[in-house]
Design a protein that fits this description.
Largest sheet: 7 strands, mixed
Helix content: 25-40%
Protein name: ANKF1 protein
Radius of gyration: 35 Å
CATH topology of the largest domain: Nucleoside Triphosphate Pyrophosphohydrolase
Mean pLDDT: 82
Number of strands: 24
InterPro entries: ANKFN1 (IPR039269), Ankyrin_rpt-contain_sf (IPR036770), FN3_dom (IPR003961), FN3_sf (IPR036116), Ig-like_fold (IPR013783)
Organism: Cephalopterus ornatus
Number of domains: 4
Low-confidence stretches: 1-7, 9-50, 332-351, 353-359
Strand content: 15-25%
């Protein structure tokens, strides 16, 4: 019989070249015959685990039970249990795509009982259909055989139960009879589900867009039909002809977590037609052509042949820095400095074990002056000195007014933590001018070196965007770094932030707190800022709002608190590419001095970007609290698309030229809602680069 052959095949596959056959096949067969009345294998498996490899055997036992539990949950149509198992175990641990002794997979049972929610959950986890079903005829024959054998087994057990006198054996056979009756009904339901199913309808919302100068992307939704069987895969076809003859290529998509596909390797400037069809256990459904029916691979740069703005810039800067280093290395003024690392050998430890050394120069209290503090944190813990103090070193005890230029210079130095010694040598050479600015910056470099030496760490992290100032004349520059490793350090202890905040004895009054007290009060906000400033945007095209405000010594830019390294923005679409045709339309609108599109038009099907911009502008104006009618005076920046790698790009929305930057004393008529802050422009640029 067909099912008996499959059982023999499964048992043969389960055997190892050496040693006895695995009990898994027998256990799985028993599970499939037991129906609702499952037995718990825990006591059997755990009792037989002795000697070497006990943990591995126990693990395999648990995995076998999880596979059995998944089959049972699918057969009982228990969606919650299926989702729980898929979350708890990997597909490999569940043997998700290994057929059982009946030649079935969990996905087969789900789709043939037409349980769409469970089938979708399995498909998103990577489930596949049984490889035994190579045709409609083979599936139909297999189901008929399962039903016939289950019916025959029910008849045999019924006769035995009726003819035998009541006994323990009879009671066991009654249980088997109930199990086989339940399985007989399951197989009949699966057979009926297959016979009544039909091929799927065409996918819906098939949208085609230009992904680059050599690729297009197609996105689509499931078919609308609710009576058809569950769709298990899709086929994307493309051609240069609207008749799809000759075809250029096709791709089958069986990972259905995201219904989209990018076709690569296309020729720029050539139109390509795309269509998509769906598949279920009855076969392929009719194809659905995309909207628009074709797309031409292109990029906005092809409009005027513009090269990427940053092409070769990083390499050129590295080369320039190397040349500067070479010149300074041959300078005789550096000879005395070359021996300096030897005299400070103890301060360049590779660990943090010297953090609590009695000879450390960390400060307990602040006097009037300029200081540097480094905050290292992991989860909700913060690194402190042996006296429960955040590490602080002095920069200059006579410096009571930090100039913004010095602070911004310090933030740039934070991009070169590993080059501090070399920078110190450069500034030392230049000190012959006796410039006060150079003196201050040299002291900053000394303080950085001291902090690095005491901590044994070169990378002090990111500089917080503004220093902390108190009324006593103290100024505190703060660096932040998250420690993500589980490395343990000798003589170092991490202290919970809340404990540090409650246990610290303040030496200042609540009305006039010191800079250190102000740091402890706001440390969680600063850590949140640091974490948010490292977040990245998901791939797509965004609309950004550029708003500046100037002060006496700096220009600041408006950013969202949740993502301070990016301008205020909303997402236009998931495709980051602007095609040549779309850029031509934007250029035409800019040359005609057309207002930005805020009102919907009757037909935007010919220009999807127009509708996408309308929606994005409305959302952005609401976000920054600007009346929509005022947006008619705003402009789209038409000089270029801001590309951040290959996955993120920006169009900029600008206020009227007189309102782009608010001058000191000038009233800003539109105040953004809470959730925004203004960063110094140089700080924003550094954060953007990170």
């Amino acid at each position: 019989k067909m099912t008996q052959q499959m059982r023999d095949l499964q048992l043969a596959q389960a055997r190892k070249p050496q040693g006895p056959s695995s009990p898994n096949a027998a256990k799985r067969l028993y599970r499939n015959l037991s129906g609702k009345f499952r037995v718990n294998y825990t006591s059997f498996d755990e009792g037989s685990l002795v000697g070497r490899g006990e943990k591995e055997k126990l693990r395999k036992s648990y995995l076998f039970q999880s596979n059995a539990a998944l089959f049972e949950a699918v057969e009982l149509q228990d969606l919650d249990r299926v989702q729980e198992l898929l979350k708890q175990y990997s597909p490999e641990e569940l043997d998700l795509n290994t057929p059982n002794s009946e030649g079935l997979l969990p996905l087969d049972i789900a789709i043939m009982t037409n349980n769409a929610p469970i089938a979708r959950a399995l498909l998103q986890a990577g489930a596949k259909e049984s490889p035994h079903f190579v045709s409609l005829e083979s599936r139909s024959l297999h189901l008929s055989t399962l039903v016939r054998e289950a019916e025959q087994r029910v008849n045999e057990l019924t006769a035995q139960v009726v003819n035998e006198a009541p006994s323990a054996d009879c009671s066991e056979k009654e249980k088997q009879l109930k199990a086989w009756e339940w399985r007989f009904r399951l197989y009949k339901r699966m057979k009926a589900g297959f016979e009544h199913a039909r091929v799927p309808d065409a996918p819906t919302n098939v949208h085609l867009s230009v992904a680059s100068s050599s690729s297009v992307q197609v996105t689509f939704w499931e078919p609308l039909s609710v009576n058809s069987a569950v769709v298990t895969k899709y086929k994307v076809e493309w051609s240069c002809s609207p008749t799809f003859y000759p075809p250029l290529g096709e791709a089958v998509i069986d990972k259905l977590k995201n219904l989209h596909f990018t076709i690569h390797g296309l020729v720029s400037g050539t139109p390509y037609y795309v269509r998509v069809s769906a598949y279920n256990m009855k076969g392929w459904g009719p194809p659905q052509a995309s909207v628009p029916p074709c797309a031409i691979p292109s990029n906005w740069r092809e409009y005027d042949g513009r090269a990427p703005r940053r092409r070769g810039q990083a390499e050129a800067l590295d080369h320039l820095l190397g040349q500067v280093k070479t010149v300074h290395q041959h300078c005789v003024c550096h000879e005395p400095c070359k021996n300096q690392p030897q005299s400070r050998k103890h301060s360049v430890s590779k660990s943090l074990k010297h953090l609590f050394h009695p000879g450390s120069k960390f400060l307990k209290t602040l006097k009037r002056g300029l200081y540097l503090t480094a905050i290292f944190y992991k989860d909700d813990n913060i690194l402190v000195t042996h006296e429960d103090q955040i590490p602080v070193v002095e920069i200059d005890d006579t410096y009571s007014c930090l100039l913004m230029q010095d602070f911004l210079w310090f933030t740039k130095v934070s991009c070169m933590w590993d080059e501090i010694l070399w920078l110190r040598q450069c500034v030392t050479v230049s000190q012959s001018s006796c410039s006060c600015i150079l003196q201050t910056r040299f002291k900053m470099l000394l303080a950085i070196s001291q902090m690095q030496g005491l901590l044994g760490i070169q990378d002090l992290g990111q500089v917080f965007f503004e220093p902390i100032k108190d009324k006593q004349g103290n100024i505190l520059i703060v660096t932040l770094k998250e420690v993500k490793t589980n490395q343990t350090f000798e003589s170092v202890r991490w202290v919970p932030i809340c404990k540090l905040q409650t246990s610290r004895k303040s030496v200042s009054s609540p009305e006039e707190p010191t800079a250190l007290d102000m740091l402890l009060i706001s440390v969680q906000d600063k850590l949140a800022y640091h974490q948010r400033s490292s977040h990245a945007l998901s791939p797509g095209l965004y609309l950004g709002y550029l708003k500046l405000c100037s002060a006496v010594d700096q220009i600041r830019v408006l950013v969202p608190e949740q993502l301070p390294n990016i301008l205020c923005h909303v997402k236009i679409r998931s495709n980051p590419n602007i095609s040549r045709e779309e850029w031509e339309w934007l250029q035409k609108m800019a040359s005609m001095e057309e207002p930005v599109p805020t009102e919907p038009e009757a037909d935007t099907s010919q220009n999807p970007l127009f509708h996408e911009l309308q929606v994005a502008i409305k959302e952005l104006m609401t976000l920054v609290n600007i009346p929509l009618q005022e947006a008619k005076d705003f402009r789209l920046y038409s000089q270029e698309v801001l590309d951040f790698g290959d996955q993120v790009s920006f169009l900029l929305l600008l206020p009227p030229s007189d309102d782009v930057c608010t001058a000191p004393g000038q009233n800003n008529p539109y105040t953004p809602r809470s959730g925004f802050l203004t960063l110094p422009l140089q700080i924003f640029e550094l954060g953007e680069e990170r």
